[in-house]
Amino acid sequence: MNKILLCLTAGLIVAPPALTAQEEQRDVHVRNDCRLAAQIIRTGEPAPHREWAYGAIRACDQTGGPALAAAWTQTLPSDRDRLAKLAGASRHFPTRELFNAVRAVAEDPGAGTTVRVYALGLLASFAQPGIYLDMRDLLEPRPGRLARTWTMSGDAALNERGELVNVLPEVRALLDELRSADDAVVANAARSFISILP
Amino acid sequence: MHPAAPSRRTFLWLALVLTACDLPNPAGSVHVSPTAESRAESAVLLGAYAAPNRMPVPGESPTSEVRLEPTSIPPLQPNSYVLLRISGTLEAVRNPYLGGSAGQGHIERSYSPVESTESTGRGATNVWLRLSPSNLTRISYFFRPAANGSDLVLMVRTGAQPTEVWAERERMPGAEVFYYYCRAGKPYCTPDGPDWIKPDTSYRPLVKTWLEDHWVVSSHVVTATAIAEPLIMDGPTSVALGETAVFTARPWGDLRLRYPHGQPGDVQWMWYPTDTTGTASPLSRAEQVCSGRPVCEFEPKVSGRLHVSSYVEGAPVETDRIVRVQKHPDRELRLECNGARGSGVVVRRGGTIACAVASDPLGGKIEVEKWWFSGVDSRGQPYQFPTEEDSPEMGLSWSGQLAISGTIHVLASIDGAPAVEQSVSVQVEARDWSDEPIKYEIRRGTLQEYNAVASVGEIVGAQPLADHDLGRMAAGGSVYVTSDVVDYIDDYGPNHRLAFLKAVPIELELLVMVHPEMENRGAFYRRQAVTPPAFGAPCLQRGFSRYVEQILAHEGFPVNPNAHTGVYLREYRSRAGRAVEDLVAPNDALPALGQLALSRLNPVGVHADAVSDYEVDTNHPVRFGCTFRWR
Question: Cys staple from B163: which of B52, B112, B158, B431, with CB 3.0 to 4.6 Å?
Fold first, then answer.
């Protein structure tokens, strides 16, 4: 089985019909949505539209990456729901700019435990797509149990790494370094992510 | 004159000569190997000599030295024994020319240690043995060969150097002549002849001449025979452990155990345990196992050297014998595991191996010093049991469950021999876990739960953006290493303290999510058409129940073989068992075992997910038959 086939067959039906590459450039409606979504993500306002913005930004092949990279450099939300939306949207944009921004967060001891664990999860997914750790087990470790690993059906379309095709050694080195982080949760997460790397 | 320091002038020489020897003697010496057991009773006739049997006559010079020809024999080989037999008579006859009885002379005094004259006219003499160049040994103080010709037997042991052997008769002590004496320098005087000087009664002769008062008259034959061992030890050279052996010592041929003075000789038996070199070692620990008698019974515990010493015909003699205490001469230690030796023993993981040592052929006494197993566990760490901290396993057999391949060793001895190591290579074969059952649970999950499980954040948003957002399946695996899935070996056998898997240590959690917008009649629902339009095939609100059923069937809730859950489980089950079947670690390293299992099972999950995606979405896609309106 090859990845091209997997990409074509991901999801419930053969191909996602709505959003395709370069649509932002061709479709003025999409372009307008992207501009609005980027603004909401950058400012967090208006709050009721954040949900929409994190969904819409995934279709923004031109502005999505820079907008999300910028979001990782700003004050990050502390609640898991908003972090999950930020991370979930970010994994659609495997760019060096976004990678560097996320890496800086992961390395920053002052960034907060939850933020750093989400950043590590995102970096790990760039290095080894297709398998994930259970975020619940990372943030609230089960005594004596290893973190669950997950695979998600219909996820193969996100396995293309783009600019980040060779980041595995970089991510491994970072995780190795963070294994002995002062933050026990971050350290445990780093060790757990190492275990799923090839 | 002291007999230990005789003057050459005063001796009568008897030379033993090598004559009539028809055996090869290329080096001009006599060679007999005294230690070769096979030749212990061999003998070589060196030669014989018949002495002249007459009195000297006037004109000869018979007194101080009578040399018998030939005068030399080839040197004897070092450390050999020579048996001299002297048959016939060796007489000392009064010098008839002294004329004492005729008043021509007078024997004033005899210096012989014995009375030099007997009524029979025979004298006594001492026979000395000279071992040239150094030793002079008196071998018979009183040499009184009987007139009837009985033998005198002499045993000679040569030294470390080639030795010339001479037999010498001690000078018969002479008589001091008082009143008559021969002229100075005359060895003897003819009765009434001019050589006699009649002394004055008041005159004391200025010159006195020692005259032999006895003459040696021989009528004898001397034979010299080299023999390998004058003292022969009979008995076994190999004794089974625990058996009593009987050894006897006897002199060669018709010789006798005799001290130099003729008393019966005692026999002393000394045992040198572990000395099997045949050479006395300063470190040898000697034990006197028997004393006095020529028969010795004892039970040697280990191999060693038996030494026996005594006297044969007056000569100190000794001999040794290496006695090996062992086992059956042909017995070997045999190690078998499950009926096989050396290698080729195959045991299915978790099966039992039973090893035993035995003697081949049976019957040997085996003492096991220790058993041990060596191998490598799944972490790549060397494994050995017992370690130095454990009690050694010392039974004749050893058995237990086996989890890893390796080598079983035993160090044991048989019949008291030094311990030797035997080993058997054992191979553990994998169990057939190609379709090992997997513990799993399939349940419906919410969108929030679905998004929460992945470490990459939200995967599907609150509003579906495409068909593949309408339903998803996530597969989670939780590794657990508990007694449910682990067998702990606790039998003090070869793999004691190892733990191996008895089931795949995973709990699968299959989460089927249908997007809430398909069921809660929200914005997405309201966005769809209410009634069929004239053209096109939009999805209708009234079709949502059917769409949900289609989504659940596609994702696999309940599980079916054409759904994501079904294909995932099929693929996972087919590979998971084989991926972890060989995992083994010490029972105090279970976390490491869990990590190993996780690292082996993660690729299995990725594979199952990829096959599930491809196979189900390609062969069994959802056919709504309509198009949703996404915004």
Answer: B158
The answer to whether the Cβ–Cβ distance between B463 and A55 falls below 8 Å is yes
Cα–Cα separations (whole angstroms), residue B486 to B50, B383, B437, B496, B500? 101, 18, 15, 14, 6
Which chain B residues touch A145 with a CB distance below 8 Å?
A: 478-480
Prior bond of B558 cis (ω within 30°): yes
CB spacing of B457 vs A59 below 8 angstroms: no
Closest CB to A18: pick one of B466, B478, B480.
Answer: B466
Which carries the bigger pLDDT value, residue A50 or residue B42? A50
Strand pairing category for B406-414 and B366-376:
antiparallel
Lowest mean pLDDT among A21-30, B586-595, B599-608: A21-30
CA B48 to chain centre: 50
Strand B471-479's sheet: what is its strand order?
Answer: A132-133, A149-152, B471-479, B506-514, B439-445
Give the separation between CA B602 and CA A191, rounded to whole angstroms: 15
What pLDDT is recorded for position B43?
A: 58
Give the distance from residue B507's alpha carbon to the nearest chain A alpha carbon, in angstroms: 9
Q: Does residue B620 surpass a pLDDT of 80? A: yes
Q: The pTM is what?
A: 0.59
**pLDDT digit string, tens, across residues B315-354:** 788 888 999 887 555 678 889 999 888 777 999 999 999 9
Please enumerate in sequence order all residues whose Cβ is within 8 A of that of B193, keeping only pairs 6 or more positions apart, or say none. none
Contacts of B210 by beta carbon, 8 Å cutoff, 6+ apart: B174, B176
CA gap B63, A185 in Å, rounded: 125
User: Given an 8 Å threshold on Cβ–Cβ distance, is B609 in contact with A152?
Assistant: yes
Residue B258 backbone phi and psi in degrees, to 5:
-145, 140
B555: tokens are 């994702």
Burial class (CB in 10 A: 0-12, 13-18, 19+), A8: middle
C-alpha of B504 from chain center:
50
Cβ contact B594–A90 (<8 Å): no
Q: Name the helix (H) or strand (E) containing B569.
A: helix B564-580
Which residues in chain B have their CB less than 8 angstroms from residue A124's CB?
455
- pLDDT grade, residue B585 (50/70/90)? very high
CB B572 within 8 A of CB B562: no
pLDDT band of residue B410 (cuts 50, 70, 90) is: very high
* A34-38, A86-90, B54-58, B82-86: least confident range: B54-58
Taking CB atoms and an 8 Å cut-off, how many pairs form between chains A and B? 185
Q: Name the phi and psi angles at B534, rounded to 5.
A: -70, -35
Residue window 448-507, chain B: list those with CB within 8 Å of chain A. Answer: 451-459, 461-463, 465-480
Tens-place pLDDT, residues B32-62: 333 333 344 555 655 555 544 444 444 443 3
Give the C-alpha separation, B157 to B310, whole Å. Answer: 13
Q: What is the DSSP letter of B257?
A: B
> Rounded distance, CA A187 to CA B378, Å?
26
Band the pLDDT of B508: cuts 50, 70, 90. very high
Those residues with Cβ within 8 angstroms of residue B57's Cβ, 6 or more apart along the chain or in another chain: none
Q: Is A194 on the interface with B (CB under 8 A)?
A: no
How many Å apart are CA A93 and CA A73, to the nearest integer?
16
Q: What are phi and psi of B393, to 5 degrees?
A: -90, 120
| Residue in B with minimal Cα distance to A155 | B613
Q: Distance from A148 to chain B by nearest Cα, in Å?
A: 5
- Helix (H) or strand (E) segment spanning residue B337: strand B332-337
Contact B499, B584 (CB under 8 A): yes
